[in-house]
TrEMBL record:
UniProt name for this protein: Succinate dehydrogenase cytochrome b subunit
Protein's UniProt keywords contain Cell cycle: no
Segments traversing the membrane: 16-40, 60-80, 110-129, 157-179, 200-221
Keywords of this entry: Membrane, Transmembrane, Transmembrane helix
Classification of source organism: Bacteria, Pseudomonadati, Bacteroidota, Cytophagia, Cytophagales
Length: 223
């Protein structure tokens, strides 16, 4: 196992792990967004509560939660290690360098964007996941725990809505760079297909994050 440890602790190995876990987390975002779209149904939250109850007790979903958590942890840890290595390689900044000429803003600030997303994730998990699993929720007309009420209460707070929207903006920028970078790291580049991957990644990043940001804005302004 020595070769395995050396490979995946190297810079290239960690970038591979970052790419694989990043693309896996992108698939989670799609599934999560589709489920959360139940919030827009005009049924008092019944459909959303059914979805939440299913996600909380289905054994397959519960198993995938472990995979998801591991994916997050590997992604965050490798991002931290790679950032530290890059900083160590350049302990003194170049006085006359112009990084903006060779890279876009999101690629130069992935650490900052990731930190904003991580802080939001901690708040979000406590507010919804923790309360859904370990809190005492009322029961809706369908006999399911009423997580919809928690959503309405949370999205009625201006500061929480602001944090949510800012985090989605940060996530969009993070994904715009990360999506294309993941394919490049995995060697899936081609002069014919790379422009499509870049365009698809941009559209994916913007649309997914707009979908998530629309939820708190809808509840705050219209509910």
């Amino acid at each position: 196992m020595n070769w395995f440890t050396k490979t995946f602790s190297s810079t290239i190995g960690r970038k591979l792990v970052m790419s694989i876990t990043g693309l896996f987390l992108c698939s989670f975002l799609v599934v999560h967004l589709i489920g959360n779209l139940q919030l827009f149904k005009d049924d008092g939250g019944l459909a959303f509560n059914v979805y939440s109850e299913f996600m909380g007790h289905n054994p397959i979903i519960r198993t995938m939660e472990i995979v998801l958590v591991l994916g997050f942890l590997f992604h965050i840890y490798d991002a931290f290690v790679l950032t530290r290595r890059n900083q160590s390689a350049r302990p003194i900044g170049y006085a006359n360098s112009h990084p903006e000429e060779n890279s876009n803003w999101s690629s130069r600030n992935m650490g900052l964007l990731g930190t904003v997303i991580l802080v939001f994730l901690i708040i979000h998990l406590y507010n919804f996941f923790w309360r859904a699993r370990f809190g005492e929720l009322s029961i809706d007309a369908g006999g399911n725990p009423d997580l919809y009420i928690v959503v309405k209460e949370s999205f009625g707070l201006w500061w929480y809505v602001a944090i949510y929207v800012i985090a989605m903006i940060a996530l969009a920028y993070h994904l715009i760079h990360g999506f294309q970078s993941a394919f490049q790291t995995l060697g899936l580049t081609h002069k014919k297909y790379t422009p499509f991957i870049k365009s698809f990644g941009y559209a994916f990043s913007v649309l997914v994050c707009l979908g998530f940001a629309a939820m708190p804005l809808y509840f705050f302004f219209f509910e």
